[in-house]
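Before relying on records like the one below, remember that each one covers exactly one chain. Contacts with other chains, cofactors or solvent are not represented anywhere in the record.
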Amino acid sequence: MKFTTLSRLLVFNRHSFVAAFIPCICLLCLSGCFTPAKLDKWVAHDYQDVSLTPVKSKLDYLGVMDTIPSLDNRVSSSVKKSGKLLPLLFYWHQDYKYICTLNARIPVNNFITAFTAYAGSKRLKQKLNGRRVELTINNVPHVLTLEDNEHMIWFILYAYSWTYLDILPGSDDLVLSYKIIDGGSDAKDGTIIVPDANKRLRVKMFQSPKKAIGEYLEQYNDNIAAMSRKAVDQLITAL
């Protein structure tokens, strides 16, 4: 009789332990695979050869400045945000967002280089006919988000988990203000807005997240240059 009571007690304790242990395992498995520091390290690797020294316009008819705060000598600054946890009986789901803010000096320098080169090819100086343009960069896309969607199905002591990873752009457009200077006085002013050309990138199966970040940043750099050229076209149209 004592043996039976003890056996029942052991069975009860074992089941209680399993019931308490499984949620802990679920939370551990859904705790996210990345850290903000790791994301910043990947981004810094992709921009290791990029200078953060401000680029200046060398054109006598074009001045460019910006009003966007930079991150000093840091390439990026990332933070982690946790979404809602969905703990069902046999299925758990947890979302994480790693929001990475690039040093604005990176896209601003990219913009100035692409804008001045394209302005020369489009004969902006001749179209100004002795006037000068003062351009201010008020906003430029420089935020990306790594979305980590964790899923897990479990049966007693067995669990199967999987992850969907996406890289998303922020919600910022390229916003410029300009002044046309004629003989020392303002002849015209206006605003140029170029929608953000960056798109969501789904990390492929078996693709390294680090390589996916590099792929996204490559298209990001190309898009900033393309948006800069569109800004030149808008400016010429506004003259």
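Confidence is low (pLDDT under 50) at residues 1-32.
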